[in-house]
């Protein structure tokens, strides 16, 4: 099989696998059927069975990584749509962003030291609490590797989606605005998707907090990277 054809097959397999996983999750809301968990599992099985290396897969599907750029710019649209929420809850949104960044960075830094992770791996872990497009940019400023940061972001989102609501219930946080800000700042896109399943307002607040947290991380990463090193 030619390199071009092989790349096309891998790209189509990725898109088809995600579409199938999304369809399955829409009918059976189970954490283990989440597209962000099931799709990578299917791709790992495909690469193992076909003998294709991860480096080849990453090269052949680089178009998907490139599309993160336009996706990041598109985040401006939900901000514009929900500007009324920003005016109504400025303190809640600002508090969610500040707390999310502080706890996310602090816990990642502490985990790296506790497990005595190599510097490159520990640095890659730092931006795990924001969504992928922002985390990829911030990872380089922290001295990490985007290739390592991406799975860390995925695992953080899955963990937040799985137990986030249980923790919020334990903390007795009933306000949909507070719950949305909390889950958007800690579990980014996956948490936001879960928030939308509960209510439109909760999802909207989670979406705004997720975007603002990502922007703040990218802006602060160069200074934080210098300070942490």
- The low-confidence runs, each spanning 5 or more residues with pLDDT under 50, are none
Form type: globular
How many helical elements?
A: 13
Share of residues in strands: under 5%
Q: How far is it from the N-terminal to the C-terminal residue, by CA?
A: 47 Å
| Overall average pLDDT | 81
Helix content, binned percent: over 70%
List keywords for this structure.
229 residues, mainly alpha, globular
Structure description:
Helix content is 84%, strand content 0%. With 229 residues, the chain is mostly helical. The protein has two domains: 3-63, no CATH class; 76-228, no CATH class. Helix 1 crosses helix 3 (54-60) and helix 12 crosses helix 13. The chain is globular and about 50 Å long.
Provide a brief overview of the structure.
The chain is an all-alpha fold. It contains 13 helices and no strands.
Which helices and strands occur, and which strands form pairs?
Layout: H1 3-27, H2 35-50, H3 54-60, H4 62-66, H5 68-74, H6 76-81, H7 83-88, H8 90-114, H9 119-125, H10 132-142, H11 146-170, H12 176-198, H13 200-228
């Amino acid at each position: 099989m030619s390199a071009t054809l092989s790349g096309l097959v891998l790209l189509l397999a990725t898109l088809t696998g995600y579409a199938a996983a999304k369809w399955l999750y829409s009918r059976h809301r189970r954490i283990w059927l989440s597209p962000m968990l099931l799709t990578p599992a299917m791709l790992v099985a495909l690469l193992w069975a076909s003998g294709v290396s991860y480096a080849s897969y990453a090269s052949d599907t680089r178009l998907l990584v490139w599309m993160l750029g336009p996706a990041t710019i598109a985040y401006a649209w939900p901000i514009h749509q929900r500007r009324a929420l920003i005016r109504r809850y400025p303190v809640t949104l600002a508090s969610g962003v500040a707390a999310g960044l502080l706890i996310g960075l602090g816990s990642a830094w502490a985990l790296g030291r506790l497990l005595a992770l190599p510097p490159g791996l520990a640095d890659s872990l730092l931006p795990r609490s924001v969504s992928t497009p922002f985390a990829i940019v911030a990872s380089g400023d922290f001295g990490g590797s985007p290739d390592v940061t991406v799975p860390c972001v995925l695992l953080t989102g899955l963990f937040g989606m799985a137990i986030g609501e249980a923790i919020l219930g334990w903390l007795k946080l009933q306000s949909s605005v507070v719950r949305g800000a909390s889950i958007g700042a800690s579990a980014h896109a996956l948490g936001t998707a879960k928030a939308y399943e509960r209510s439109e307002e909760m999802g909207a607040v989670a979406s705004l907090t997720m975007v603002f947290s990502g922007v703040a991380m990218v802006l602060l990463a160069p200074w934080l990277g210098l300070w942490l090193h």
